[in-house]
Amino acid sequence: MSDTPATAESETGVRLLDRLASLLALLGGALAVCLALLVSTSIILRAFGLGGVRGDFEFVQMGVALIVFAFMPWCQARRGNVMVDSFTTRLPPRFQSALDALWEVVFAAMMALIAWRLGAGALEAARSSTTTMVLLLPIAPAIAACAILAGFTAFVALAMAVMRFRGRA
Fold first, then answer.
1. Given CA atoms 142, 144, 146, 148 in this order, what sign does their dihedral have?
2. Which of 52, 101, 108, 140 would be 157's cystine partner, CB 3.0–4.6 Å?
3. Which residues contact 150 (CB under 8 A, 6 or more apart)?
4. SS3 assignment, position 98
């Protein structure tokens, strides 16, 4: 098989998506470490009767949502999301690849729907100036970030579907 310019270009695009997904996963991991330190600090302060970190649960709520969405593109690029292939393992590899590609398109559609609704939720939260209860932090930026990450996950899923349809995944 020779590398045509279109093939080389698509592989470069896939590598770029993979690097971006890896970077987002690393950022999600760093955020997870920060949240673990925040929660640990809060618990230690409470143990000494100092009352803990004010609003710690608000940071955890928004942070965990961001962490989940930050890991999803990386997980999708590595076929790490839930797959059930117990009925298809005996099928020919090309058929399996086409079936996997079809399900990646379905997953992309669902992630696009989630991104759309999160985007609508972010706009509504911004319009109504919705904030957290204790620290009064605006929640719209966190929801918008999750919407963007969900959209990127949909894009990664579509890219992986195209690669599978071409038999290059």
1. negative
2. 108
3. 69, 72, 111, 112, 114, 115, 118
4. helix
- Provide the 8-state DSSP code for 81: S
| pTM for this model (two decimals) | 0.87
Provide Rg for the chain, Cα atoms: 20
Give the C-alpha separation, 149 to 22, whole Å: 13
User: In this structure, what are the phi and psi dihedrals at residue 88, rounded to the nearest 5 degrees?
Assistant: -110, 0
Q: What are phi and psi of 2, to 5 degrees?
A: -95, 150
Site of tokens 């071409």? 166
Q: What is the rounded CA–CA span in Å between residue 67 and residue 146? A: 9
Q: How far is CA 70 from the centre of its chain?
A: 4
Angle CA(92)–CA(97)–CA(102) in degrees, nearest 5? 125
Contact call for residues 96 and 58 (beta carbons, < 8 A): no
Q: Are 85 and 93 spatial neighbours (Cβ–Cβ below 8 Å)?
A: no
* Cα 65 to Cα 69: distance, rounded to the nearest angstrom: 6
How confident is the model over 53-88, as pLDDT tens digits?
999 999 999 999 999 999 999 999 988 776 666 577
